[in-house]
Amino acid sequence: MGNPVSLVSGSSSGIGTAIVEAFAASGYDVVVHYNSGSDPSDPRTHRKSGQERAEDIASRLREQYQVQALSLGADLSQPEDAFSLVDRAHEHFGRLDTVVSNSGVTNYVRDKDGQVVRYRFTETPIDHLQQEMDRVLSVNLMGAYRLCQRSLKYMIEAAESERQAGIEVAHRSFLFIATVSDVAPDSTRIPYGVSKAGLNHVVLGAAFEGGQHNITVNALRPGVVETPLTSRPSGLVDPLTNQEYSVAETYGLMAEGGSQALPRIGQPEDIAGAALAFTRIPYMTGQLIAVDGGFTLVNGFPNRELFLQEGMRRRAASHNETNE
Fold first, then answer.
1. Which CATH number characterizes residue 175's domain?
2. How high is the pLDDT of residue 129?
3. Are residues 306 and 208 in the same domain?
4. Number of domains into which the chain is organized
5. Who contacts 223 (Cβ-Cβ below 8 Å, separation ≥6)?
6. 161 plus 258 within the same structural domain
């Protein structure tokens, strides 16, 4: 029968790379997807293009895990590209057992001077809000929606073929990588949260559609994870070093200060392990599960300033003890 096949969108960096490697390490043939569109608002400074990174990852996975690994480009903000991505993956492998929708973008866009602009909810100009909403809805919601549509089509066809042949219908799965921002709003990132929260309803509808064909559909909702995207400056300066914290470092301080049960932010491998596990559970569907170190358990987001200050206090105290 050959290896099972997993397609992971947005797998040329960050969380997506960790997820596609987890599947390859478990004996899946994989599709490494990269975004073929240009994104001038991306705060990351990649030395290589998405295609180069994806091809490097695919080559490494083939060599390290002795599986097939195919790199494919698609700009998921474009209406036809999600369908095309799934079509090409299925044409190459002849099957799709698991698809993970990981691609996503933040709502921040750059101004005419090339600077990333952040507005609070009530301050966002009409034209700027339209740009932000167009950006996140086209990828985070519609791109993911279309990816699920097309994937379930092939999975349902495979299930029907098995049923007609009189053999047991195999378990197949689709997993959305969503976010805890659906319930933890930040005043400058509300469009992002809106686009991801919309996926929650897609999960429910798709789970009903796929259930009778032994297809499970769920959403994994990460908290803050240390990735190239969260390495961008946060605007907060360390009083000890006078250096600006990254977004990841800022949320790490909050975690140390008590904003969540586990006193650290996530790593891509944390999400990858959960993604692999969730897609292999045949009796769980329609679920929206947080993998966030207990961030939403504590529900500390409204008090983030308090936890940030406590984290900084503890960091300073530890620094002083070390130097004594």
1. 3.40.50.720
2. 87
3. no
4. 2
5. 180, 260, 265, 266, 290, 291, 292, 293, 295, 296
6. no
- The shares of helix, strand and coil residues in the chain, as percent rounded to the nearest 5, are 50, 15, 35
Residues in the chain, pLDDT under 70: 36-47, 298-304, 324
Please state the pTM of the whole predicted model: 0.88
Same domain flag for 99 and 173: yes
pLDDT tens column, 190-245: 889 999 999 999 999 999 999 999 999 999 999 999 988 888 777 788 888 888 88
Same domain flag for 207 and 64: yes
What's the 3-state SS for 135-151?
Answer: HHHHHHHHHHHHHHHHH
List pLDDT tens digits, range 262-279.
999 999 999 999 999 999
**Domain residues for 107?**
5-225+266-293
What number of other Cβ atoms are within 10 A of residue 144's Cβ?
A: 28
**Widest Cα–Cα separation across the chain:** 75
| Beta-sheet pairing, 98-101 with 116-117 | unpaired
Closest CA to 138 of 185, 75, 204, 190: 75
Query: Distance between CA 249 and CA 71 in Å, rounded?
Result: 32
Same domain, 312 and 270: no
One domain, residues 47 and 132: yes
Same domain, 68 and 116: yes
* CB 210, CB 217: distance < 8 Å: yes
Nearest to 156 by CA among 90, 76, 252: 90
